[in-house]
Amino acid sequence: MESPNQPVAAAPGPLAPPELPVGAEIPGQSPEPVGAPSPDAAAPATSAAAPLRPVVNTFSNDVIGSVQSLLGTIVIAIFVITFVVQAFQIPSQSMENTLLVGDYLLVNKLCYGGPGLGDHLMPYQKIARGDIIVFHYPVDPTQHFVKRVIGLPGDRLHMVNKRVFINGKALDEPYVHFLEPTNSRDSNSMFRDNFPRPDLYATNMEGNWLLEMHKLVEDGELIIPEGHYFAMGDNRDDSQDSRYWGFVPRENIIGRPLLIYWSVQDWDRSSSENFSSRLYHIAYAVTHIFQITRWNRTLRLIH
């Protein structure tokens, strides 16, 4: 009979490892300093460190990117100016009151197209009577003129007392502006108001044009040859136009003005052309832009 206070023997099992004193070495293992990280523990710390970016390479990349962006902008601007639109300034009174001195224009260079297959594929406009055009001045192609198309290829044109007749019919011109009466009798006025006059010579007339005019006048009418246009200013009494230097060849025509994007008062017509004077006028325009701008003409479409 067992005593109730006698301890029960534990079931046999695996032996627990013997306790070792602190600092004792385990047989078969090399000693390791206390507190030293293991190789596995050190690896994550090394991989988590951010790589260093070279300052020189970063600056060079930024400069190269900026230059590429600038070159791209320049290429686009050159393409637009060459093929699409171009800005021009009106320097004379020949197109008053349609265009005034100080008007800045945007010219559509695509509207008329050019010679080649593209004219048959693209919806280009034909040059029409009454169109305002910008073109290379035939006498000096480095200059740009702006006039209105009055005569088309094949037209027969003449003027009587300032009134234009095309193929025998008077032309309706509500845009025309006159400065002088029609009864002037000096040779310059007679040539200007009753064109063509091969028997008269105007003081501001190109010499070769007088010889060419003789060959193209029949029954008092000027015959406009193919591929050429007769252009005149709206300010008929103060316009150096086809009456004085001849026709505008088709290849000289650049385009048609779209709008006046800015108009500025002609505040000093007698200013000199030296550098200091131009610099002064630029500074004046910048500092007085609100006073000299013609707001009623700015962003006006041109017809």
What is the helix fraction of residues, given as a range? 25-40%
Biggest sheet record? 8 strands, antiparallel
Percent range for β-strand residues: 15-25%
- Count up the domains: 1
Number of strands: 13
Indicate the CATH architecture. Ribbon
Mean pLDDT: 79
Globular, elongated, flat, extended or rod-shaped: what is the shape? Answer: globular
Q: What is the assigned CATH homologous superfamily?
A: Umud Fragment, subunit A
Helix/sheet category: alpha+beta
User: Could you name the ranges where pLDDT drops below 50 across 5 or more consecutive residues?
Assistant: 1-18, 20-26, 30-37, 39-47
CATH class label: Mainly Beta
Query: Total number of helical segments?
Result: 8
Description:
It is a single chain. The protein is an alpha+beta fold. The protein has one domain: Ribbon (Umud Fragment, subunit A), CATH 2.10.109.10. Helices cover 27% and strands 20% of the residues. It is built from 8 helices and 13 strands. It has helices spanning 39-48, 55-84, 118-121, 187-193, 207-216, 242-245, 275-287, 289-292; strands at residues 85-89, 103-108, 132-136, 144-151, 156-160, 163-166, 169-170, 217-218, 221-223, 228-232, 248-249, 253-263, 300-301. Strands 1, 2, 3, 4, 10, 11, 12 and 13 form an 8-stranded antiparallel β-sheet that branches. A 5-stranded antiparallel β-sheet has the order 7-6-5-9-8. Strand 3 and strand 4 form a beta hairpin. The model is unreliable at 1-18, 20-26, 30-37 and 39-47 (pLDDT under 50).
